[in-house]
Amino acid sequence: MVANKNEFFWETRVYYEDTDAGGIVYHANYLNFMERARTEWLRALGIEQTELLQQSIGLVVTSLEIKYLAAAKFNEMLRICSQLVELKRASVEFEQKIYNNDNNKLLVSAQVRVACVDLSKMRPRAIPEFILGELSRVV
């Protein structure tokens, strides 16, 4: 679900498998929610990562700064907001926030840098032009 050109919202439910013994989301699972939201945004822009992988192109997280503000619990609906902050020749920086969808409470805030990599050489490479074109429309 797209809110405006530079923001993308994606919703998901907290499943039992996402939680720890106390019924709250295990801290590393927030990273999974953010990854899925970025993937769905790319998909909404017509960019399929399976096609990139066939060309030996990967989009990998190179840095992450995260703040845990409150816990999500089993069966809650979450809304992940992804915003493109910076677009460079070989990397993209996102700001991502996870909210409780029912009360709009901010739970997690993160800055995520993703680099484009040639998977056959495991070296950075320029983001393909068609991806840069799509992303530059939302900056």
Helix content: 10-25%
The CATH homologous superfamily: Hotdog Thioesterase
Low-pLDDT stretches are none
Please count the helical segments: 3
Tell the overall outline. Answer: elongated
Indicate the proportion of strand residues.
Answer: 35-45%
CATH topology: Thiol Ester Dehydrase, Chain A
The domain tally reads 1
Main beta sheet: 7 strands, antiparallel
Structural classification: alpha+beta
Q: What is the C-level CATH assignment? A: Alpha Beta
CATH A-level architecture: Roll
Output the radius of gyration.
16 Å
Give the SSE order as H and E letters: EEHHEEEEEH
Nearest-integer average pLDDT: 94
Indicate the topology:
Elements (H helix, E strand, L loop, with lengths): L1 E3 L2 E7 L15 H16 L4 H6 L2 E12 L8 E11 L3 E10 L5 E13 L4 E2 L4 H8 L3
Antiparallel strand pairs: 1-2, 2-4, 3-6, 4-5, 5-6, 6-7
Q: How would you describe this protein?
A:
- This protein has 139 residues and is an alpha+beta fold.
- The protein has one domain: Roll (Thiol Ester Dehydrase, Chain A).
- The protein is built from 3 helices and 7 strands; from the N terminus they run ββααβββββα.
- It has helices spanning 29-44, 49-54, 129-136, and strands spanning 2-4, 7-13, 57-68, 77-87, 91-100, 106-118, 123-124.
- Strands 1, 2, 3, 4, 5, 6 and 7 form a 7-stranded antiparallel beta sheet that branches.
- The longest helix has 16 residues, at 29-44.
- The relative contact order is 0.21.
- The mean pLDDT is 94.
